Amino acid sequence: MIPPxxxxxxxxxxxxxxxxxxxxLNAVGMPLDLLIARDVANMPRWPALAxxxxxxxxxxxxxAQRRRPTARLARATFLVNIAVMLVALWIxxxxxxxxxxxxxxxxxxxxxxxxxxxxxxDLVTGSLAIGGFVGMALLRxxxxxxxxxxxxxxxxxxxxxxxxxxxxxxxxxxxxxxALARRxxxxxxxxxxxxxxxxxFLALRDFTNTPLQTIELAAVILRRQHPELAPIxxxxxxxVDRLYxxxxxFSVYESQIEWTEEDLTPDPTALVIGx
Length: 275
Prior knowledge:
The protein is mainly alpha-helical. The chain has a domain at 195-273. It is built from nine helices and no strands.
């Protein structure tokens, strides 16, 4: 009998998957930023390439643990991946700000906040990631010269606060959905366990019916042929009666079973023993 998957294992698998996607976005998205910035003077290449390489490395770490994922590993890799991206964005944003023309700042931070809301392993980790993207953008803005700040588009960089509100709302909604899914998973697991217990009880009932009938018939024959054994046979009858009452108790589980074609001719010993 194959045991149902555990709730912790199901949660760890989802967290692992979200962290893997986040690292993949870093591995692909940060190098693509170099294409966008190809005409930006003095744009360093190493931050984006290093961030992308870190994303690949973290993906390899996660992939190596794919058979035994843990929520702790997923949270750690997710936060490390975000930290590496923030360092790269801090450096490249300075080059963007100094480039000629009007710059709509911190687009990557805004997208990162929304992506964190969708991919974070849990509520706390997601909140930290969103706070990191938003806080880094505002702090970077404050470190720029006044002349560079004046070149920002109207409303920037404060529009990132709007993205933060939407990202936190998405994260809270997703956390609620995950909590609901966990409750449903728990109910389903308990239902499976109840079904298996009920099947085992009914199999035990069916398995003992014939021996009980044989004992009961033998006791009747012995009572007719050897009346002097009445005290012993009375004890046997009382024991058989108790077993019949126990079988009737098992019958209440019959209505709780969802029968399938495989259950039409079950092997009672297999259900009781668990093979």
